[in-house]
Design a protein that fits this description.
TIM Barrel, two-stranded antiparallel ribbon, 37% helix, binds NADP nicotinamide-adenine-dinucleotide phosphate
Length: 328
């Protein structure tokens, strides 16, 4: 496992971070046994992962609770990222942080993120509350998610986020147009969420019809799918054509497709890590293998070329769902 230093070298994190959204067993992911979640977190640690990402939103705190329980006395050996959402006023942020601390069973959060930018409350107020939490030792470092160039520029005078957590994977390259360059200019490293495009890059789904409905709602899928609300036509044909070609590259190189897809991301300029979800020990062990994998320039070029038409078709809107708050 490779480790990277972030936060002015104050934190050393595994390049593969375990994302804990699916542990919530919510409408997106379907049911999840607690014993499996705990075993997955323990397997992550055994595989060298020391970085875990969760949020108050995931199962209304349940993901945080399970993570805290699974970490137990190892809490101080790992880096925990959590987030608050739609609570941008100072008092709400303080309350959200207290709830997250209770859920996690800890007295500090290493990386505290704004989950989505709120434009109803000035950033200055939110940042002040976050700085107060930092001064009180309840959070160690401040971070953001889903900040496009406009929001990033607005917040930079108030704080420098330790990372900007963004959607990025072979099938979702929208941030390459404007957001990644803006992060590079601001020297803000990127951590990549949904790095396997919610399971698509494992190659286990043969068509969009195979993908569970809760997940088939991103803008890659047709807006006609039952849970989709983005109202766009999607790019299902291009997606599954690209997946078949990516699978062929993996097969020819003798690589695991999921780990190869994560390794492609880890080779991108400005990327500090991949935040990959897993629901079983077997999945996290596969995914952790990316932390030791370096792709040849030829494989990287082939993967770039295969996914370029999809990147061009989807364009620069990096929001996977067309969330009400959007990315700007
Ligand atoms: N900041 C934000 O706004 C934001 C948004 C989204 C996600 N996130 C974070 O990013 C993390 C990862 O994103 P994500 O969960 O959306 O997507 P992902 O990491 O691309 O996909 C994870 C899912 O793929 C399947 N999978 C993973 N590894 C596998 C393997 N080796 N073999 C077969 N299937 C495998 C699992 O689901 P199945 O077994 O059910 O197929 C797993 O839950 C989240 O947990 C969360 O921490 C942040």
């Amino acid at each position: 496992m490779k480790y990277k230093k972030i936060a002015q070298e104050q934190l050393e994190v595994s390049s593969v971070c375990m994302g804990c959204w699916a542990l919530a067993g919510d409408a997106t992911w379907g049911s999840q046994e607690k014993a499996d979640s705990i075993a997955t977190v323990r397997a992550a640690i055994d595989a060298g992962i020391n970085f875990f990402d969760t949020a108050e939103l995931y199962g209304k705190g349940y993901s945080e609770q399970v993570l805290g329980e699974a970490l137990g006395s190892d809490r101080d050996k790992v880096v925990i990222g959590s987030k608050f959402i739609r609570r941008a006023k100072a008092a709400d942020i303080t309350a959200a942080c207290e709830e997250s601390l209770t859920n996690l069973g800890t007295d500090y959060i290493d990386l505290y993120h704004i989950h989505w930018p709120s434009r109803e409350v000035p950033f200055a107020e939110s940042v002040r509350a976050m700085e107060d939490l930092k001064s009180a030792g309840k959070v160690r470092h401040l971070a953001v998610c889903n900040f496009g160039p406009g929001d990033l520029s607005d917040i930079l005078g108030l704080m420098t986020p330790v990372v900007n957590q963004l959607p990025y994977n072979l099938l979702w390259r929208a941030i390459e147009f404007e957001i990644l360059p803006a992060c590079a200019d601001a020297e803000v490293p990127v951590t990549c969420y949904s790095p396997m495009m919610q399971g698509l890059l494992t190659g286990k789904f043969r068509s969009a019809a195979d993908v569970p409905a809760g997940r088939a709602r991103t803008r890659l899928y047709s807006g006609d799918r039952p849970e989709a609300s983005h109202g766009e036509s999607g790019a299902e044909e291009e997606v599954f054509t690209a997946i078949a070609a990516i699978a062929k590259v993996a097969d020819e190189a003798g690589l695991d497709m999921a780990a190869m897809s994560l390794a492609w991301l880890l080779g991108r300029e400005g990327v500090a890590g991949v935040i990959v979800g897993a629901r079983t020990p077997e999945q996290i062990r596969h995914n952790a293998a990316a932390g030791d994998m370096a792709l040849t320039p030829d494989i990287t070029r082939r993967l770039d070329k295969i996914t370029e038409p999809l990147k061009q078709k989807m364009g620069s809107n990096a929001d996977m769902w067309n969330c009400p708050s959007r990315m700007r």
